[in-house]
Design brief:
Elements: H1 3-15, H2 41-47, E1 55-60, E2 63-68, H3 69-83, H4 90-104
Antiparallel strand pairs: 1-2
Helix pairs in contact: 1-3
Length: 105
């Protein structure tokens, strides 16, 4: 398994919806022209979503989850850290694997 394979697996785990102990807050929104929806201002504020913020949309079955991309990256990084030795550097390992692969071609 390469460093990239590990990264992909961990990212997929991180993006799975989490089991929540509290009832989820629900808001009914209407899809506008062009498929646009407006996220209420209080929700955007709590999720750190300002104009231009990158978000991750995860679709699973018949539901979707929207998450601030920076928060999703932090969550994935925290998850990765649990599986790696303390001083591991995935980016360097990935670059070394790619260089070795290109030399074999």
């Amino acid at each position: 398994m390469t460093a990239y394979d590990l990264y992909v697996i961990i990212w997929e785990i991180a993006m799975k919806p989490k089991k929540r102990t509290a009832e989820p807050e629900r808001t009914t929104l209407r899809v506008a022209e062009g498929g646009r929806i407006v996220i209420p201002v209080d929700v955007r504020a709590r999720l750190g979503m300002a104009v231009g913020t990158e978000v991750v949309l995860t679709v699973q079955g018949d539901h979707a989850t929207l998450m601030n991309a920076a928060a999703a990256r932090r969550q994935a990084q925290e998850l990765v850290r649990r599986f790696l030795p303390r001083h591991a550097n995935l980016s360097e390992e990935l670059m070394a694997e790619r260089k070795a692969e290109s030399r074999r071609e």
